[in-house]
Amino acid sequence: MSKTSVLILRAAGINCDEETAHAFRLAGADRVDPIHINAFIQGRRRLSEYDVLVLSGGFSYGDDLSGGKVLANEMQSKLMEDVETFIGDGKLILGICNGFQVLVKMGLLPRTEPGGRRQEATVFYNDSGKFECRWVYLRRNPDSPCVFTRDMPETIYIPVANGEGKVMLASEEVRTRLGPGGHIALQYINPPWAGAGVAAREITAVPAGMAAEGTAGADDGEATGETPYPWSPNGSVDAIAGICDATGRIFGLMPHPERYTHPTHHPRWTREGCREPDGLHIFRNAVNHVRGAQ
Amino acid sequence: MAAESKTRRIAVVNRKDVVDAVGEGLRGDILDLGIAGIEGVRHVRLYALHGALSATELDRITTGLLTDPVTQEHLEIADGGLPVAPGEWGVEVWFRPGVTDAVGETALKGSRDLGVAGIESVDTGRGYILAGPLIRSQVDTICRRLLANDVIERYACYEGGQ
Amino acid sequence: MTFEADDTVETFALLKATDDEMTQLSRDGMLALNLEEMRSIRRHFSALGRDPTDVEMETLAQTWSEHCKHKVFNGVIDYVSGRNTERIDNLFARTIRKATEDIRRAKGQNDHCVSVFVDNAGIIEFDDDYHLVFKVETHNHPSALDPYGGANTGIGGVIRDPLGTGLGGKPIFNTDVFCFAPPDFPYGKLPEGVLHPKRVFKGVVAGVRDYGNRMGIPTVNGAIMFDERYLGNPLVYCGTAAIIPVDRCEKSAEPGDLVVTIGGRTGRDGIHGATFSSIELTDASESTATQAVQIGNPIEEKKVLDVLMQARDRGLYRNITDCGAGGFSSAIGEMGQDTGAEVHLEKAPLKYGGLKPWEIFLSESQERMILAVPPDQIDALRELCASEDVEASVIGEFTGDRRLRVTHRPDAAGSRITVADLDMEFLHQGVPRIVRTARWDPPDHPEPPTAGRPGAAQSLVRLLSSWNVASKEWVVRQYDHEVQGGSVLKPLQGARNDGPGDAAIVRPVLSSDRGVIVANGINPSYGDIDPYWMAASAIDEALRQVTCVGGRIDRTALLDNFCWGNPDKPDRLAALVRAAKACYDVAVAYGTPFISGKDSFYNEFSDGERTIAIPPTLLISAICVMDDVRKAVSMDVKAPGNSIYLVGRTRDELGGSRYYGMLGFVGRNVPTVDAAAGSGTMNRLHEAIAQGLVAACHDCSEGGIAVAAAEMAFAGGFGMALDLDAVPRDPDADRDDTVLFSESNSRFVVEVPRGREDDFEASMQGIPFGRAGTVTGEERFLVRGLGGDEIVSTELSTLKEAWQRPLRW
Question: Interface pTM (ipTM) of the complex?
């Protein structure tokens, strides 16, 4: 079996690098290196050494202009060629929270066409106007090409913590491309106690032709964002929590899977008992994909 | 031809159809002050870019860095020139000299990453457009009690259409 | 980019000055030096035959400030109580420090302290690889003027304390406690120069949020207290814990080592911060204190943290401390205390030009640390810093002459200009001690009439809705309490993740199940009756919370943070003496040492006509090591059919309680502490929890049994039926409202799994306990009174809504 090398890219203000590295180690990665971006910009290290590039959570450059914007700008200006080569080599990119914001603002997500560079979505300030740290239920899209969500239960439970987590799309036309492509890999859904009937709408793959005729995804646009606050904590369109690109190998999500890798992370472990932590699936899927691909 | 060094003021606002959570929160706070006339608050991010910038470079910074392409729009304004309609008030809040402006430093870094060499420094501020039948003394109260802190900031307020 | 400094150095004409002129000099220069101290300085310089420079005067004023020297605690106090006068020579050494010394001696082999009172934070043992570092600070005065910036730099500053302890600890969590005036304070009654408490509240929360979240340090614990007397002086306590490798706790600076500043640049920020915090605020402070207020840059500090952890592990420096109050003058003055140091001011990187030498030396610009770097390591350190965009500059060296010499750029002839040359001995030991008088006159507050009190159910709902008791979820969810991936018990707990947890637990080493418990105790309202019992209760409360979640008090250490009024006023000082005495008595009885602490005085506000002092406020923070976090217990009830026990004796102790406060009274019977009984209770309860006999546990504090039990019920989503007659109590606790709302210490509400009652009762033999109820499947909270009548029957949803509504902003 071949080795799996994971790069956790560090930069000023990135602050979830250690627990993300820990999660990858738990998932069986052979080598996990948290390394500062300057090492790659200055040519002291190369992205090509790695199988998985991870942009972890934090506040890169303080999110001073907007979440992830300055790091996205820096990567576009100084590392884009290496990143494109990395993608072209069939390798994996994962963005968590701030890292997701970076990938979206680099135009790498949703990237419905391989090679596309336009920013067609954004991650904006929460509707609540404040930072939200809370656990959320997520449903995976079984029809998504996303390799990170491939092998796991239909719903998982992990925390979010962000002030800018509202996924918005540049146009209704972009939205029509997301459903059929299975780009919406994860959506916020109601918790078990909030009752049925208000779950996020189903996003299922539909024949491309139907989307081209102008229907907005699987069902009608009226059904958007049905998971209410705070279960959908940011006000994302279609309760989007995570998005992948057309290949399924670039994936980003606002919630933090690395924060549920130990049974005592669960907010109710003292009443519901210890169980297999949901967050690990995402890291295992990545490691297993790399192993299978090699 | 080399551009001359000067200051360009940029205002970044949410598009009309985008929720302005900061503005909404402030509207609630203003109601708390007992000023019932407040009808709406729009939050504006202000940047003062100092340096010699060509038109292309300015656009690269404003479009590529300061403005979210999906949710925001920007315009260049004069000092005291927020886009305030008649019946609205504009408020600008800027740091006093010497107060740490981390956002300004980050904007400078981002601009340089874009290859804009002529940029010298960036100051940041906040703007507010207040809608509703307000009189100057009420706007002053809003500024002092909520929007600006005289210890570290200076502010200016002006009525639209004047 | 580099900036040029202004070269102006002035001298203070001290040698010929009269007493009046010296007083004037101190006041005009915002030096906060009293006449006795000015005379001392004059004597010293008379012997040298010259006047001091402004750099020297400012350095002395700073080093001798209350903020740095703790002159009140270390001074001499004549404590008058009734007819007795007791001379206390160094209150700190005789109470707080003595408690720790006595406890450590008594514990012998089991002493878990590593470093106490000497470094920037206290250190205790954690495991074979790491020790635990903990510090809590206050940032009150700046937060009064600019809540956002004040709180922002408060948290930024306290993070640098563990980072500057030993050779640098890695922060693992923050804890924050605030005291404000009520958010619904009428705008019309607001004095000139005072920000409205709601704005202060929101600004402080935002400041802590933006700094802590950006640093990637979880804020896991806290409290918010409300009292109108905090109107002009809100209190902002910020604390940070860290882990440090066991072989990185020792530090020293050797002659020849380089003085290196790392991180942020120096500007005119925070000039006079230390002396400013030793002065009462007035309505003019808002405009005169501009330079004392600043805004932090958490990303700068995060970058510094990132490179320091690497530099520490590579052994690139020998000593580290933070630039806090007094900036370079205090950091370098302290680090070079035993060696001497020479500083070249022109080498300090500046934010902008025009700073005078004394401003550079005294500046309190944020995000700076000072290192002592062996010359053969400086290149490696520089390279490391450059690789992550952190600025590091050599600004001097440690000498061997025990002098603090400060020079500025060479003059035209090329010789360095000395702008300060101070004897370290005089700088650190020369401050004259002050004798103050403390006078204790016990207050007498009437008890409320028993007639006309509201019913139990109505009182419970009103208490749950009071600012002090109500849910703080609005605040908690704005703090990232999960970052670093070590969360075990979160601040919000229960079936819907929204019940109020007692203590938080984190697991700082991700590959280990060993945890750290953090809790706090604070009850300023008891101080209105007797600050002795206030302090005793604060310790008891912090230890109760530790016990509730599964901690043990013999693995617990304490921090003390005193926020007080003007200590020159004998009544304020007497309150301090009484609180400090309680700290000794109760800490020793529990065997829990103090490892660090802080004091903040002059928290009084004058609007020209009247002076408002804060209530004497002591925050006790507790930190405990837990071997196996999987034994932890949360406060929410778990299942219908389980039994509810009351553990600990209930007394008629409603004095200073929230219930009396609600009735508009203070009362007489303040909660006392019987630490011998309390430690027995806590130790037994710990054993019961470790044996798995406890499903949920919550301590009785504000609002007593009623509030604690109601919180457990609505957090767990199950009803509860309680019978007050089964509550262990003193004979004079004979009224329903006394039993329900008394705030007697050392008490717990405990849920025991069905079928384990006999085991639990066996484990509690000799401890006062009573099986006082059961968890029910109905969503109602029921209480049967002493007379057998049902006195409360309220829907859980009503109680929860009452508790959540006030701060649902």
Answer: 0.94
